[in-house]
Amino acid sequence: MQAEQEDRFQEFVRARWSHLVRTAYLLTGDAHHAEDLTQTALAKAYRSWRRVSGSDNPEAYVRRMLVTCNSDRFRKRRVKESLTDVPPERAGRDEAVARVEERGVLLGALAGLPPRQRAVVVMRYWEDLSEAEVAEVLGCSPGTVKSQASKGLAKLRTYPGLAQVMDRAPQGGTK
């Protein structure tokens, strides 16, 4: 890779690292897996940086790599993630603990979705991408995005405890 391309890649990583890790965290539900997933996607992006940087939207290209790498993680070896409804040890109930528990409920609900629905829900409602943008990232039609979002949201609505968390969330949502 030429020095100029190398510099552009490093600038991209510095500017988008935390955003990509946050997206990966929502896809995986685990901070360590999220960092590994982001590093894997960025390693693939580095190898084909000329093509990635030449695209209309390099971030969308790398985001698509995140989703693909996450799907590959499940294909290559069946990863069994077991989340519990209640942590084994409970601390005193203060605001910080309540936020952690609420996040746990949300991550548990997301973990219960199939990978494609989870990717659509995360990108559509957390990343605030349009249906067309999500379709482009996932390589599918906007109709598929709509149906996967609808199915994912329907399944999330049935998740125990999620309704109470959403009722307590400030209007406008939190990130």
Automatic annotation (TrEMBL):
Give the RNA polymerase sigma-70 region domain ranges. 19-78
Could you confirm whether the keyword Acyltransferase appears in this record?
Answer: no
Q: Which family does it belong to?
A: Belongs to the sigma-70 factor family. ECF subfamily.
Q: Does the keyword Transcription regulation apply?
A: yes
Tell me the ranges covered by the RNA polymerase sigma factor 70 region 4 type domain, including all copies: 106-156
What residue stretch is flagged as signal peptide?
none
Q: What InterPro entries would the database entry show?
A: RNA_pol_sigma-70-like, RNA_pol_sigma-70_dom, RNA_pol_sigma-E_actinobac, RNA_pol_sigma70_r2, RNA_pol_sigma70_r4_t2, RNA_pol_sigma_r2, RNA_pol_sigma_r3/r4-like, WH-like_DNA-bd_sf
Give the top-rank taxon of the lineage listed in the UniProt record for this protein.
Bacteria
What name goes with this protein?
SigE family RNA polymerase sigma factor
